Each structure stands twice: as C-alpha cells, then as structure tokens.
Amino acid sequence: MTRRILGDRLDGLIRAIPGGSALAQAVLRLIDPERRALHALRERRDLHLFQPFPETFEDRYPELFDALVLRLARLEAPRILSFGCSRGMEVRALRQRLPLAEITGIDVNAWALDRARQADPDPRSRYILADAPDPSERYDAVLAMAVFRHGQIELERPEDCAAILPFADVAAGIARLDAVLRPGGWLAIYNAHFRFADMPVAGHYRAEPFRMTDHAPQTLLYGPDNRRIDGTEYDAVLFRKAPG
Ligand SMILES: C[S@@+](CC[C@H](N)C(=O)[O-])C[C@H]1O[C@@H](n2cnc3c(N)ncnc32)[C@H](O)[C@@H]1O
C-alpha cells in the first residue's frame, strides 16, 4: 500500500474522532514526506509562492510542447526554463523532444525537486530550488504551466482573489520571467487565473494564434482589480517577445 493510500485511510479514521482533524493532518505529515514538504512551504512567508500544490502529469501538454519545439527548431541547443517544474515531468517531456536543449527546472518545493533530480540523469538538465529565476540568466523559452493559479481559488471561487493570490503578485512574478526571456523568445502560460493580456509586460509580446485542443480554455479568471470575471474564457497560451 502506498504512503498516499495509507494516509488517506488513516485520515478518514482519525477525522471520525471528535476534534481529530488537526491531529489527522499532523499524523499525515509525519508519514507522508509530500504532505510535509507542502505544509512547510505554505508556512513560509518569505517566498513568492503561487500555486503551492505540486500536481503534475507525464507529458501533460503535448500539443503545446510540440508547438514550442517547432518554434525553437532553428536553435541547436535552446535554453529553456520550466518555472514551477514540480517533479520534473515537463522537463522530461521537453527533453524527449529536444535532446540537446539546456533545460532548467525551478521550483520552491524541495521534495518535488529531489524527485525530479532522481528521475533525470541528463547532464543538460538542472534543477534549482528557488522562487524566481536568477536575473542574470537568459532563456529562449519560458514555461509557467499551472503556476499562476491556486487550489484554494479553484475550490472557493471567491469574488475577489486578493486574500489568496493577488493580481499584483502574479504580475510581479511574470515580470521576473520576462526579465530572463531573450528578445524574440517564447513564453508559455496556461492553467492560470489571470490573462496574460492584462499583464503590464504584455505590450512587448504578440500572442500566437496557436490554441491547444487537448486542454480546455481557462475560465476561472480574475482581472487587475482582483475581481472575478464571469462569463469569459481565455485560450491564448503562447506569446512571442518582440525581437530586440
Ligand atoms: C501544479 S504544479 C505545476 C507543475 C507543472 N508545471 C505542470 O504544469 O504540470 C505548481 C508548481 O509551482 C510551484 N511554485 C509555486 N510558486 C512558485 C515559485 N514562486 N517559484 C517556483 N515554483 C513555484 C509549486 O511548488 C508547484 O510544484
């Protein structure tokens, strides 16, 4: 039985005890290093933390990865940043398509990064524990997939997202990614609660007509005033920075 299944069963049992919820959480953290790492992360106040949950999947966005590869084809060894790489699935999916690429995965979750390193011995891959890219680096493509969102927003769908994940924090995070992307480089953002078109840096980018048919457009959206925008969807995912 995996730790996760054992944990879920224990959770159910302990929660049945009056006042058992906090105890259940503490016990689960003791036996499950993933929950422990997530808890430690959410306790920290010194990080620019966006989506704290590290859920990810193998080859999660195949159409987008293929579209990116086409656009990077003229470069022999493109430099790619997977921001919020979690357990490294995105890095490995890109590696399969671009064997010579220099790919950097950045994440704030030490447990997830350890898993990523263990699964990827390629010397052209590197994994960095950080909440932002080193501003002196330059990349040909940057991906931030399922990062500028929050599980609590998904669950509660508040009218105002400021208390959980304010627009200004996301805009600052995207500005840090913009700073490390070369002129003419590619930025991929999806599974977000915010439209790239609303970001202050968007004026330097052109949205590609490319659309994913293997993923739905984003619908739980918030504007620069942090208010929920109902009845709209956003399907732009790939943006080209103006050449220098
Ligand atoms: C839902 S996972 C997305 C994983 C992968 N990009 C994907 O789409 O499958 C979100 C990840 O973003 C990471 N994250 C959140 N804020 C971050 C930050 N400021 N810097 C780096 N990683 C961050 C979390 O630790 C988590 O692993």
What does the model show?
The protein has helices spanning 3-15, 20-31, 33-43, 62-71, 89-97, 110-119, 151-156, 167-180; strands at 79-83, 102-107, 125-129, 139-145, 181-190, 205-207, 221-222, 228-229, 238-241. With 244 residues, the chain is α/β, with parallel strands linked by helices. It has 2 domains: 3-31, no CATH class; 62-241, Rossmann fold (3-Layer(aba) Sandwich). The strands form 2 sheets. The chain has a 7-stranded mixed beta sheet. Strand 7 and strand 8 (228-229) form a beta hairpin. Helix 1 (3-15) packs antiparallel against helix 2 (20-31) and helix 2 (20-31) crosses helix 3 (33-43). The termini are far apart. The structure holds S-adenosylmethionine (SAM). The site of S-adenosylmethionine (SAM) has 24 residues, from strand 2.
In short:
With 244 residues, this protein is α/β, with parallel strands linked by helices. The chain is built from eight helices and nine strands. 35% of the residues lie in helices and 18% in strands.
Global mean pLDDT: 93
The total of beta strands comes to 9
- CATH class of the largest domain reads Alpha Beta
Q: Mind describing the biggest β-sheet?
A: 7 strands, mixed
Strand order of the largest sheet: 3-2-1-4-5-9-6
Distance between the termini: 55 Å
Helix content: 25-40%
CATH superfamily heading of the largest domain: Vaccinia Virus protein VP39
Q: What compounds sit in this structure?
A: S-adenosylmethionine
CATH architectural designation of the largest domain: 3-Layer(aba) Sandwich
The tally of structural domains comes to: 2
User: Which oligomerization state do the chains in this entry correspond to?
Assistant: single chain
* Rg of Cα set: 19 Å
CATH topology category name of the largest domain: Rossmann fold
Secondary-structure element order, N to C: HHHHEHEHEEHHEEEEE
What structural category do the secondary elements indicate?
A: alpha/beta
Separate helix tally: 8
Morphology: globular
